[in-house]
């Protein structure tokens, strides 16, 4: 499909976009004010307090639910960079895969938010046992952010990098 918003030409990229030459960045850079604010928010979530594995599993499951090929490819690439094996990355798509209790909780958060737009009381209680208050907020924001981003890249028809 043809992009609805063309990526900014390379000659107009800022230093960040030059260092991260992905279509999502070059496309969102068409709105400089929002792009800068979004990058800060995205960076805060990516460098947050959650373990890298938890972030990777949450964003992968969210990308899977979103149906965005771009967001899946992006999150799979990030997960590989964080050391997740290819087999585990693919297992995130399998609803009946066996996971550790800790991993299953992260995946359940993404599932609950996708299907119900809320967490069940049981999921929330398990989160309270595992994470402090900031961690609970961060995980919910992480999933919501990536669900919204998937909607944006799908709607703008951002092309997956070759």
TrEMBL record:
SUPFAM superfamilies: AhpD-like. GO terms for molecular function: peroxiredoxin activity. Gene3D superfamilies: AhpD-like. InterPro entries: AhpD-like, CMD-like. Residues 32-99 form the Carboxymuconolactone decarboxylase-like domain. This is Carboxymuconolactone decarboxylase family protein.
């Amino acid at each position: 499909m043809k992009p609805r918003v063309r990526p900014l030409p390379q000659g107009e990229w800022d230093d960040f976009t030059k260092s991260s030459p992905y279509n999502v960045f070059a496309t969102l850079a068409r709105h400089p004010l929002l792009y800068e604010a979004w990058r800060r928010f995205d960076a805060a979530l990516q460098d947050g307090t959650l373990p890298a594995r938890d972030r990777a599993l949450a964003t992968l499951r969210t990308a899977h639910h979103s149906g965005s090929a771009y967001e899946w490819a992006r999150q799979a690439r990030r997960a590989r960079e964080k050391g997740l094996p290819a087999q585990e990355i693919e297992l995130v798509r399998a609803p009946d895969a066996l996971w550790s209790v800790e991993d299953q909780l992260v995946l359940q958060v993404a599932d609950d938010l996708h299907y119900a737009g809320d967490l069940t009381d049981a999921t929330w209680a398990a989160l309270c046992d595992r994470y402090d208050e900031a961690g609970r907020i961060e995980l919910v924001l992480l999933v919501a952010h990536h669900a919204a981003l998937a909607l944006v890249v799908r709607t703008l028809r951002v092309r997956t990098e070759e």
